[in-house]
Amino acid sequence: MRALTIDAHGGLEQITFRDDAALPLAGGAGDVRVRLRAAALNHLDLFVVAGIPGVNITPQWVLGADGMGVVESVGTDVRTVKIGDRVVINPGVSCHVCEYCMSGDQSACVKFALLGEHRPGTFAEFVTVPAINVRRIPDAISDVQAAAFTLATLTAWRMVVTRAQVKPGENVLIQGIGGGVAVAALQIAKARGARVWVTSSSDEKLAKAAAIGADETLNYTTTDIAREVRRSTNKRGVDVVIDSAGSASWASSLGALGRRGRLVTCGASSGPIVLTDLRKMFWNQWTLMGSTMGNDAEFDAIVGELAAGRLIPSVDIVLPLSEGRAAFERLASGKQFGKVVVLVDG
């Protein structure tokens, strides 16, 4: 089959498009095999290529987490979908038997695994996943929209809705607008009635964010983010910060956070080590939270929003799978606004 793979960790030169990759096995009684039509990149894919501590790959490792396609085969126990159904894929695979899964918190599963990182991914003609990881989608949603949707939107939904519990009228600061999670968080926070601030080093990205609803735009190369937020809010600060950058933005995120503020982080693209003054943390009664992907109920919630046309992902560029390395280069450049998508079928 055609696939985008790596044989070893390193730079983007490791990425190879091949037409002789091995087909995935049909799977077990509860699995489905999906013929992919489109897939999308995440920063996770860049990390996998470079190498993630503790994560091992085998040669001809298939990259990719996000994807959509048509069900090609189903296991004997599968009743939720049938052959020919058009589906979107949740890339987070859980065991569904541990204490966390049984409590409904599948993303905290002790065996949690992501497509493209721990299991063969979606940048290929076929992928095999548990049936519980796919949902049918209406024809009104395009292949590109569906492919660009899941990982970023699910991550952002959990951060904004479940963890931060953003309420109407609250001030929300989203650091580093342009990436899939940040853009989805902007859309979700606005839908919940929040006033949203976004930051970027690119005035072009800030203009695009304003066009889709951002209330305040701040260029962090020319503006002291924390000071400007404090000035504009009469020293109050924001209620919520959404931060996936890590070390580069951490100080300004805390500096902008008001009393009883909630900060949620899902990543560390600029570095994992940060400094926090505990005196400010307890005096201001901050809540600092981590967040990873989402559970089955949250997956159902976002697919419902997608199907209703209320939550459509922003797409930056679409390329054929054969130009997969160029897609990675676009993401690595940091110039994208929204998702980078590859067409697998066609």
Low-confidence stretches: none
Strand content: 25-35%
Number of strands: 18
Mean pLDDT comes to 96
Distance between the termini: 13 Å
How many domain units? 2
Number of helices: 11
The name of the CATH topology of the largest domain is: Quinone Oxidoreductase, Chain A, domain 1
Largest sheet: 7 strands, mixed
State the secondary-structure class.
alpha/beta
Annotated CATH architecture of the largest domain:
Alpha-Beta Complex
Alpha-carbon Rg, integer: 20 Å
CATH level 1 class label of the largest domain: Alpha Beta
Written account of the structure:
The protein contains 11 helices and 18 strands. With 346 residues, it is of the alpha/beta class. The protein folds into 2 domains: 3-149 and 313-343, Quinone Oxidoreductase, Chain A, domain 1, CATH 3.90.180.10; 155-290, Rossmann fold (3-Layer(aba) Sandwich), CATH 3.40.50. The mean pLDDT is 96.
Task: Give the secondary structure arrangement, pairings included.
Layout (H helix, E strand, L loop, with lengths): L2 E4 L9 E3 L12 E10 L2 H8 L10 E2 L3 E9 L11 E4 L2 E2 L5 H4 L10 E2 L11 E5 L3 E3 L6 H5 L2 H14 L7 E4 L5 H12 L3 E6 L2 H9 L4 E4 L5 H8 L5 E6 L3 H10 E9 L12 H6 L3 E4 L5 H12 L7 E6 L3 H10 L5 E5 L3
Parallel strand pairs: 11-12, 11-14, 12-13, 14-15, 15-16, 17-18
Antiparallel strand pairs: 1-2, 1-4, 3-5, 3-9, 3-18, 5-6, 6-10, 7-8
Keywords for this structure?
alpha/beta; globular; about 350 residues; 2 domains
Brief overview, please?
The chain is an alpha/beta fold and 346 residues long. The chain is built from eleven helices and 18 strands. Helix 4 packs across helix 5 (180-191).
